[in-house]
Amino acid sequence: MTATSAQALAVTLVDELVRAGVRHACLAPGSRSAPLALALVADGRLDVHVLIDERSAAFLALGIGKASGRPAMLVSTSGTAAANFHPAVLEAHHSKTPLIVITADRPPELRDTGAGQTVDQIKLYGDAVRWFVEVGVPEDRPGSARYWRSIAARAHATASGSPAGPVHLNAAFRDPLVPAMDAGPGAERSGGREGEEPDGSGGREGGAPWTQVRRTPPMAAEDDLEWLAGVIAASDRGLVVAGDCDVDPGPVLALAEKTGWPVLADPLSGLRCGELAISTYDSLLRNEAWANDHRADVVMRVGKLGTSTALMTLVSGAEHEIVIDADGMWLDAERSAATLLIADPASVCRQVGGALPARPHSLWLEGWRHAERCARGAIDGLLDLDDDVSEPRTARDLAGLLPDGATLVVASSMPVRDLDWYMRPRPGLRVLGNRGANGIDGFVSTTLGVALASPQPTVGLAGDLSILHDQNGLMLRRAEPVNAVFVVINNDGGGIFSFLPQARRPEHFEQLFGTPHGLNLATLGELYGCGHRSVERASELAPAVAAAKEQGGLHLVEVHTDRTANVTLHRRLNQAVSDAL
Question: How far is 119 from 111, CA to CA, in rounded Å?
């Protein structure tokens, strides 16, 4: 007996996506998705990760995509299960992370009838996907396999394209969902992979994808390069600003060195390194007088600007802001960009740098570097005054202690801000975060996805609410081996709100914004089988993280802080920098 039509579709989609390069599949269990689930585990070439919480499964796939640059398959049953993927789909859309979502669905005759687990899944994620296709109910007819393979090939190419992002395949299955018991051991793999057949059931020879897509990064025209070189050569007061991006740092930093322009780089850019890096720019620019004296004529920017309002003000006040983006994304929240150059930033910087003469270091650059030394000395001096733990010091020290090749995944809210404001320049550390939509949700699972796709150590820096919001992600540890250390700032609530105008309304502040939870993270670790260590002194952080990494598995390293004291410390740090200037 042959496999069902549902199984034939599932096997063909999985086979074609693996041929295209997919290596991970994240599955949230369910009945309607049974053909897909069976095809995933029968394939033998995939790492299949099963999580009962659809939201956690989705962010796990997202983390795999962020770390590897390859889309993972994300599979669910019908109904609200598919809807729970939406937050991760939004993050993938805004952060340009490849992701292939396959939702199982009820057949058309059961829709709008009150049938269980049946909702409208057509374009469920709206404009947040690069491509949606209603695959249709599988039928055993000529041409079906070619159609399915073509869909899978296009889905992978679109998810990996320019810009990368999520795609959504909606597959409606009729009963029977699984082969009959006497169908034989090969039923789950019908369709084969042993050579091309006229109907497409066997796929291309040699395991090749049905359709190969070849891309060349967009290159700037010669006149555009000449124009940019002229703009740079004519300006002494220039800045290289890097936000969250995935750009080869070498050519960008080399161009900055040649032009003598300071580099103001978000940690998520990978460009906060080298002698031209100004890591204290946020503290410097909070000093209004200093900021007014250091307005730039030209800002050359790559990536989406991060958390620093002071930096946004500086960039938007430049006479000419040039954004270089390979995908032509309008990364211009301040509506201040004068030029958008659609080209690969590394290639542009390499070509322009080769055409420019070296510029002696100017008073402009030396002024920034002198201010960096003053601010860094003031910040480090205050943070190192004693051995007390604090949120700024934890972020600074954690970024400094991790080995070259490690990945630091940072949560939204205060952790990503403290990393931006206080991390010293250094090479060799990859920093990732969910900064497309800037949510705290899915942080645990994203970090674990990064860990699964990364051969080097993975450490997460999170607030307590980020951990609690996605604690179900920790259940992955029960299903398969995974190694990650979470350094958790526990200030018993939402620390960022203490910096916002809401804090001036104390009568309802704790109830509506502070939201203290009073939960014991040691108990949380015990529930999910994670190790737990508590850091009471700043000097204990490095050995605690080292011991957790050495032991392997999942670990929570808890750092207790006070929200009110944290606001006071940040104000003291800003004042110390102003005094130093």
Answer: 7
Domain 386-580 homologous superfamily, CATH: Thiamin diphosphate (ThDP)-binding fold, Pyr/PP domains (3.40.50.970)
Q: Which long-range contacts (CB under 8 A, 24 or more apart) does 502-508 make?
A: 503/567
Alpha carbon of 421 to those of 86, 280, 379: distances in Å?
A: 31, 6, 10
**Dihedral angle computed from the Cα positions of residues 174, 175, 178 and 184, in that order, rounded to the nearest 10 degrees:** -110
Question: pLDDT for 353-394, tens place per residue?
Answer: 988 888 877 899 999 999 999 999 999 999 999 999 999 999
CATH class of the domain defined by 222-369: alpha beta
What single-letter DSSP state applies at residue 72?
P
Q: What is the pTM of this model?
A: 0.94
Residues near 81 by Cβ (< 8 Å), separated by ≥ 6? 28, 30, 54, 103, 117
Homologous superfamily of 5-207 in CATH? Thiamin diphosphate (ThDP)-binding fold, Pyr/PP domains (3.40.50.970)
Which residues, other chains included, contact 344 with Cβ-Cβ below 8 Å and sequence gap of 6+? 217, 218, 219, 326
Q: How far apart are CA 155 and CA 65, in angstroms?
A: 15
- Rg for the chain, CA atoms, rounded: 26
